[in-house]
Amino acid sequence: MPEIQVSFIAASQDDQKSLPSVEGQNANNSTLPQSKPIQRKLNEPVFRDRLLSDKDVAARYQVEKQTIWRWARTSTTFPKPFKIEGTARWSENELDEHDRKLKEARQ
């Protein structure tokens, strides 16, 4: 069964005044142009990027978490983590790209 993802964006009270109502008007009662809905085929690929913790990355490379942090700190090629609400995460796509480049360099 195809997976469907929905994203919501929080709006401030000021932003909500300009959001369209069901009738297609904003809070000022001015008519807004109707936009076409975004359509996507169910079998169309969706860009996905899993976010991995240091524990996940360590398991991927079969090393200790300290090794992952050392690589992140000292290596010029190993992907750097980014923080989400104070929690470090690695992009699985960046790790895949790193692995691909290492493999190409060996050949």
Automatic annotation (TrEMBL):
Biased composition (Polar residues): 23-37
Keywords from the UniProt entry: DNA-binding
Basic and acidic residues composition-biased segments: 97-107
Annotated stretches, region: Disordered: 1-40, 87-107
One Gene Ontology MF term: DNA binding
Name of protein: Putative DNA-binding transcriptional regulator AlpA
Organism: Aliirhizobium cellulosilyticum
Lineage of the organism: Bacteria, Pseudomonadati, Pseudomonadota, Alphaproteobacteria, Hyphomicrobiales
